[in-house]
Amino acid sequence: DDDMFSSVFCENSEKLINVHLFALAAKHYSLSNLGVCTPLEDVLEAMKGNSQEATGIKPDEFMNNKKSHEVQVMSELVDNIANYCGVKQVIDIGSGKGYLSSFLSMQYNLKVYGIDSSNSNTSGAHERNRKLKKHWRAYQSRGRTNLKTHSSEKANDRPVESEIKCKTINEEFVNNTNSLQSQDQVIMQDLVPSCGFTEMTTSETRTETEADLVAQKQSHESKLSEEVLAILNILPADAVEVFSSSHCNGKELCEEEKVQRKITSLKTKARKSSESNLYFPLTSCITAETELSDIVTDLEDCMMVGLHTCGDLAANTLRIFTAKPEIKAVCSVGCCYHLLSEQFENQEECCDKVWGFPMCQYLKDKGWCCGRNARMSACLALERVAVGQMLPTESLFYRAVLQVIIEEIYGVTKSDRHVGKTFSKSSSFIDYVRRSLKKLELDDSKLPDSCIMDYYEKYKHRMNELEAFNMLKVVLAPCIEVLILLDRLCYLKEQENIAWSGLVKLFDPVKSPRCYAVIALKKQTC
Fold it and tell me: Bridge-partner residues for 115, per DSSP?
């Protein structure tokens, strides 16, 4: 309880005196122990409706293990939410290279606009989507081949089946010739693009009825022609390709053959449509004031998603969602908490600026501030450390000693520039320091190698201290993440137009440490 946790720190010095209690307190206030999350299974169960499991592309063949896990789990949830809200358009904010966007479009046949601020990401997404579509067609082809093999194995006693397969178009329509309405339903099923192998789900039924269909075919041909022609007449003029008479070898086609060719043309167009690009990568910088209709010209009722949206982008995604009536739902997984802007961090009054933290009125009224060090700690991955994926102690040590050097030698305590991932490119500590100084635009010529190594030797014995300190930060990380995520959830709870909002753990935290999604649905308007 709170009294027990009060003995974690010394009252006078405020120093940590009980590491064990510190760890217990951190665990007590972590998101997994607070009981505020909604289980993913419950969300899927509540929204499943008439959605069917897709059986098409396997993301692990085109992405690394982490990204595949994220995309597969989140895309299923997004599809369920979209179906529940009755929308087909998805806006992917911070879409990056388009992993989630392209999968949503190809696997679930959603129309996705991926918006990213980086031109290179958008170009990469275009190219990656082009290559992925080739694999997608290969999947479809492979699925059809497997289907034919499966059907032929089950029909060794039906030599007529190979002949029947050549007449699939007629058979599909003959099967429902009782009324014009049933014909319409069959044609629309052929026209609607499908990214799953829908043929697979009906292959057994179709095989078992093929013999009966052949027997019925002659008696229904005349009626079929009339009904199909009636339906084709109400379609747009450009929905059917005009057949060129030059391909008829001078012979006049009978009415049935004309219908057959028109239907074949329709099926070809439908196939091309299903393979068409339903994912549109766009380049734009998103802020809280962004007008989506200026970016997406055919904006309609839709939902917004974001897979690991960095810093303020996650907060702005929620603000846009609450402000725009067209957006019926949101599913946002944030990351890069260290990049969040904080209203009360520097005690600067700036009434016009929209801050990343805090969002909810409760924390604003309290003037709550985390600070950059705390936000950096929130990015650490406790679950990974718990299974043996230790922190990069050496790189952290390099960075700490570098900080001492630039303060004592160059007198620099703060810089807008960043060292970045210099450690992985460096062959030694000396190389690391020189590369880093160049990135910080500091003159390294005044710093001999011997001086650099002196600093290294001076602090080398304190590496264990640094490791212990960083382990304490890791233990505290979930508590800081809780504060940021609950702030976002409370912001949504404060809005009057939200029907439901919640935090949902989507991913395995070992594979993907930023595993919590903020999800919300708008109230339905009459």
Answer: 93, 282
Global pTM value? 0.70
CB 147, CB 314: distance < 8 Å:
no
Provide the H-helix boundaries in 86-118: 99-108
Which residue type sits at 347? Q
Q: What counts of helices (H) and strands (E) characterise the chain? A: 21, 7
What strand order describes the sheet that includes 327-335? 279-283, 111-116, 89-93, 302-310, 327-335, 516-522, 498-505
Q: Are 508 and 79 in contact (CB under 8 A)?
A: no
User: Residue 251 is which amino acid?
Assistant: K
- Give the type of residue at 426: S
What is the residue whose two structure tokens read 């718990």?
Answer: 386
Read off the DSSP letter of residue 240.
S
Angle at 47 between CA 302 and CA 186, to 5 degrees: 75
Q: What is the pLDDT of residues 237-284, one digit of tens each?
A: 333 333 333 334 444 556 666 667 666 665 555 454 444 457 788 889
Alpha-carbon 251 to chain mean position: 55
SS3 503: strand
Instruction: Please list, residue by residue across 121-140, b when 16 or more beta carbons sit within 10 angstroms of its beta carbon and e when fewer do.
Output: bbebbbebbeebbeebeebb
- What letter would DSSP give residue 337? G
Residues 521 and 497: their CA atoms lie apart, in Å, by 9
